[in-house]
From TrEMBL:
Domain VOC: 1-114
SUPFAM superfamilies with a match to the protein in the record: Glyoxalase/Bleomycin resistance protein/Dihydroxybiphenyl dioxygenase
Any Pfam family matching the protein: Glyoxalase_6
Protein name: Glyoxalase
CDD domains, A to Z: VOC (cd06587)
InterPro entries per the UniProt record, alphabetical: Glyas_Bleomycin-R_OHBP_Dase, Glyoxalase_6, VOC_core
Tree of life domain: Bacteria
């Protein structure tokens, strides 16, 4: 999976720290992360025309194409860590056991209880 963004190395750095994954390949405009135990990774590609999605979605505005769900043991602790890394808590929160955040490029992602 490739995530478009304005600055691939910067966004990859955010997710590397958030997820604890390793950089497996790095070019100026493309970075691949993978978990150390193997499995599917995430790639990040710089895209000059990138426009961040809005959340919640609104007709006629940039829609999200995907979002990541990340399972955590403690929403408050994991949320504070994500914010310390550069995430922003979304104003709209649809569920009590899920927290929606925006990564530094504006992609929404969810932390949810284990």
């Amino acid at each position: 999976m490739v995530v478009d963004c304005p600055d691939a190395p910067a966004l990859a750095d955010f997710y590397q720290r958030l997820l604890g994954w390793e950089v497996k390949f790095h070019e100026p405009d493309w970075v691949l992360l993978r978990p150390s135990e193997g499995g599917t990774g995430l790639s990040f590609q710089s895209e000059a025309a990138y426009v961040p999605p809005v959340w919640p979605e609104r007709a006629g505005e940039q829609q999200k194409m995907l979002h990541l769900d990340i399972r955590v043991d403690d929403l408050d602790e994991a949320g504070a860590y994500a914010v310390a890394l550069g995430a922003t808590l979304a104003e709209f929160q649809p569920q009590d056991d899920v927290r929606v955040f925006f990564d530094p490029a504006g992609h929404p992602f969810c932390l949810f209880l284990h």
